[in-house]
Amino acid sequence: MSQTGKDFRFPQGFLWGAATAAHQIEGSPLADGAGPSIWTRFAHTPGMTLNGDTGDVACDHYRRWRQDVALMRELGLTAYRFSVSWSRILPEGTGRVNQAGLDFYSGLVDALLENGIEPLLTLYHWDLPAALDDRGGWLNRDSADWFAEYGSVLYRALDGRVKKWVTLNEPWVVTDGGYLHGALAPGHRSRYEAPIASHNLMRAHGAAVQAYRADGAHQIGLVVNIEPKYPASDSAEDAAAVARAHAYMNEQYLHPALLGRYPERMPEIFGDAWPEWPQADFELIRQPLDFVGINYYTRSVTRADDSYPLKAGAVRQPLGTYTETGWEVFPQGLTDLLLWFKDTYGDTPLYVTENGAAFFDPPVAEGGRIRDPLRIDYLRKHLRAIHEAIEAGVDVRGYMAWSLLDNLEWSLGYSKRFGIVHVNYETQQRTPKDSARWYGRVIASHGSSL
Ligand code: LGS
Question: What is each CA distance from 93 to 98, 276, 368, in whole angstroms?
């Protein structure tokens, strides 16, 4: 029972996990025959990441994975979401398979299963093989075939041991960061490229699901980052800005995947850069999904402005609480989103596949303790928000905290710590923060102690 007197027990079989991604934790990007990815290249381009931080070492998980699985077991996790680095498996992106790459993930999956931890495997968490970027990357329509080929190699090697597969992580971020605003690899800035990259990502998603139905027999889904948009005022301009921002971020990928069409406002946002798409593409994109994963961090209070090309921006809340990355803590938004999803798309099973916060953590205290009460507060409030949605009838089946370990936050380098476990980047020592111990107790009580 929690301090509020309410019992927050979660449904039987609810998965309690933590999430990571290959480029952010593994290190050794070129080991054992792997090819470079766009992130290896991007991070080694001067000026692209804070302090020039790269993923060359990261959390050295590629060599310390056994210890990391032991840590997960110690915390009592029942699930672990990780991603596979495509260019470890196919160094040129297509064609020749690198057995050593498959062996690495196969060993990891076996160790998870031996410890009673269910693996959730993400095929694409942003690290496209550099060889495929040289062929146009996501701007090339062939990318759908490349991705299905890569998926099939993994399905044949791991399906059965892995029973939950994710095609793409956050196609919105891949496109907005990688092709529209250029802050993420491959660093393009083009209103004309962005819709094409998005569309090909979704074609690739569809092709990988299709391939899974041939080569796999369990569950596959898509992970999107979505955030509710609330109007900054009651003006008609702000209402229109909210509608644009909502279509752009929340519906641009879910609509084609689940309804087989784009939201109507897309041409309004992209103007003459929005192409006419062949109808057959939507038949490929819209494949029956076994689940959808939602990554939730914050909300946006939105107003009309002259930002390009959306003409909508976020307004800082004077009374809000903000994390170290400048994102407002707003747990109610997660309940709202889960209810919105059910209303809009129906009863597809959902997982919260990422949720968490970067806060300034004090140094490791004597006895190896790290007090991070703000992170505990963040996680508790969001878990309660999920519980509220479940009580209201939304089928949420699991929760993955972002992240298991402090890690490489893309262009922001090692400056932001999201882990429930602290990583000392000099020694690679792992130290569970108070939040990790707290989460372990929540898991042991099935949520009752929230
Ligand atoms: O590390 C990433 C986490 C951290 O925060 C992870 O690899 C991604 O999948 C995911 O995008 N992550 C993340 N997203 C938060 C996005 C919030 C954007 C709010 C922008 C407000 C100005």
Answer: 11, 29, 43
CB 398 within 8 A of CB 79: yes
Task: Tell me the CA–centroid distance for residue 297 and ligand 1, in Å.
Answer: 7
| Alpha carbon nearest to ligand 1 atom 5, residue | 297
Phi and psi based region of residue 58 (left: phi greater than 0; alpha: psi -120 to 50; beta: remaining): left
Nearest to 77 by CA among 356, 441, 449: 441
CB of 173 within 6 A of ligand 1: the answer is yes
DSSP state of 328: B
- Kindly state if the Cβ of 126 falls inside 6 Å of ligand 1: no
Tell me the per-residue pLDDT of 166-198, one tens digit each, with 9 for 90 and over. 999 999 999 999 999 999 999 999 999 999 999
Query: Does the annotation mark 354 as catalytic?
Result: yes
As for the ipTM of the complex, it is 0.97
Residue 399: enclosing H or E segment and its boundaries?
strand 396-402
The DSSP call for residue 179 is I
Q: Express each pLDDT in 140-156 by its tens digit.
A: 999 999 999 999 999 99
- Determine contact, residues 107/159, Cβ cutoff 8 Å: no
Asked whether 124 lines ligand 1 (CB < 6 A), one says no
